[in-house]
């Protein structure tokens, strides 16, 4: 890229932390006018956070954000971004389902007003849809709740390109093709090229490598909150992209001798994911730790819920360690002890009532085993730190007599020390014959698993025994080579 | 029932068939249930089908319709107002005492009431409090204030207010005209104006509204202030009709208004409300009471029977919703 081109937006040393987690660290990047910049990286690499900073929905902690030559970080926001002609199509849909397509358009464009604003909004969004997705079959009067997910995504994209007396320089598309079928996705990518050709800029985030290589002018690879590589797209190949995304200097961890437990015996779980097209099942044998991986939100959590439902329906039960602690995990008004014993109450009864001594004893035992740091297990659960709350949730699952433990990315936002302690307890319990199915977004955690299933678009696409585990292979399977 | 016969007729006009049937059925349900109720009343008591009869039956419908609209505005932003009844009672007491004796002071007090509502909206949003708890608390505050103002039933509504609510209009009774104007005005504001779109959007997907750069705080304040305004209108209209007030004059309006919104096709969450439906729902509730009187059902049983009618209509609604939720 030549230096003569005008830098539309420049990040200089941008950093952003959420508590102890550094989401972005010293990011330097610029978007030129008239280019399509690709942004790629594995889970938690910081792509979406960086784009939220650009769109004005998150503010950076440090560094400078330049629009043109102007430093704007201190007073940046959604409206300011919009005034500068920067818009974003977010990954999670941001349409109001109770409103019509035209009304949703108006939400984003305050310039549509006055008498007959509905007609104007309808004409604008339909024109935008026609331009991007010819033959779309969406009307401005349709209520968004009535549209299937793919069409909602089309509306969301088309809405970002509606302009009324405003300039539009840069549109961020965060996984825009994730719920579009291949024909419509192709229409979108062609439109992106036309838009860029006319002097606009696009930042494209996608997990489909072919799409990125064909559409983008430059591709930026992010890892662990940093930009690790920027090259013209023509200098990348599938293989080199995957290689860049993986961490190069990986700490050599002690590799246990891998002994497959699958030689004999029947699996505890053999579940076919709901969206699986072929006959592949996710299996777990007694005493195994089975890892689920792939990009976040590609059906791993759904599989866990599916297994749980299936087990409950057959009266076998299973314990689930929730990842979303606040929503699915803790009973926030209860004590630590009550939070742990809730799943074992059936075994703590004397007659029809709960035996307080047995409950107390169980809580004490698990405090010791998990090392929960509190002076009194009768304290409210929210008095614990996040990591210790998570230990309590592990204790709840392990204290139950269930032989199958499902874990839904439970280590998010947990400190390293706690993680180590929990890993060793999981290994002990597995050695005693308990089975674990563990969805994790952290690749290092897969080293503890006996078998790893890689998920993509709701399907298990690869079954790796630990002996063949390689980060490269997981990355390659998580990202689609070509548009399906 | 009527619902099934009117369906194919209207269905023909729908552009994408199948998909919108349920929505159409749902939006016609409040009108249909009101029509069924009216026809039943006219068959049982033909004399009700006159200017006089309608006026008598719908006399007290206007304050309930106003209260229902107030409740609907709160429900639009996924909140619930449990203090509405006691608030309207308080307004009635203010109107029967302060407004009558010191008009300026009375007007200021009423404006203050609206300001308190706006503050409640701000408080609920900023502190992220459940609206049910806050308004439940406020209901005791309003009730206490009303008792302080008017310890025993009495007072008298200002003359101008009494004559205002008793205007004799040609052809149609005043109550019907007010209800129609109310429904149209709120419909235009909430469903057709650009501001209304933002306000409803805040109920449908607050996050999206915030991301689009609108202030949720201002939206909440606007909605609560508007609800307070309609509450004040309801209280004034009510006291104009009854001429005197008492501290518990409108307590039942809280539940009536919620029932009216739901009968009118509104949902507790998701910003799905209908102003015309809400007004129709309020009228349905009032007429259900009249119908039971015509049926000579003893007042002891009336409350229960009214509840039964409510459950019947809601059961119909639920089955319509189920139709709507069927996978595409």
Q: If you had to describe this structure to a student in words, what would you say it looks like?
A:
The complex is a heterodimer of chains A (484) and B (328). Chain A has 484 residues and is an alpha/beta fold. Chain A has 15 helices and 20 strands. Chain A has helices spanning 47-55, 78-83, 101-108, 117-132, 149-160, 182-197, 209-215, 238-245, 300-313, 325-329, 336-341, 356-370, 386-399, 416-431, 471-478; strands spanning 7-18, 21-32, 36-40, 62-67, 70-71, 86-89, 170-174, 201-205, 218-223, 226-232, 269-271, 282-284, 289-294, 319-321, 349-350, 353-354, 404-408, 435-439, 451-456, 459-465. A 6-stranded mixed β-sheet of chain A has the order 6-7-8-3-9-10, with helices on both faces. A 6-stranded mixed β-sheet of chain A has the order 14-17-18-13-19-20, with helices on both faces. In chain A, β4 (62-67) and β5 (70-71) form a beta hairpin. Chain A is globular and about 75 Å long. With 328 residues, chain B is mostly helical. Chain B has one domain (32-40, 48-316): Orthogonal Bundle (ABC transporter involved in vitamin B12 uptake, BtuC), CATH 1.10.3470. Chain B is 75% helix and 0% strand. Chain B is built from 16 helices and no strands. Chain B has helices at 2-11, 21-44, 51-58, 61-76, 84-96, 98-101, 103-126, 131-149, 159-165, 174-192, 194-204, 206-211, 216-242, 253-263, 275-294, 299-325. Chain B is globular. The model of chain B is unreliable at 1-18 (pLDDT under 50). The chains are: A alpha/beta (484), B mainly alpha (328). Chain A binds chain B through residues 56-57, 77-79, 82, 90, 93-99, 103-104, 106-108, 112-113, 117-118, 139, 142-143, 146, 148, and chain B through 15-16, 19-20, 23, 192, 194, 197-198, 200-201, 203-205, 207-209, 211-214, 270-272, 328.
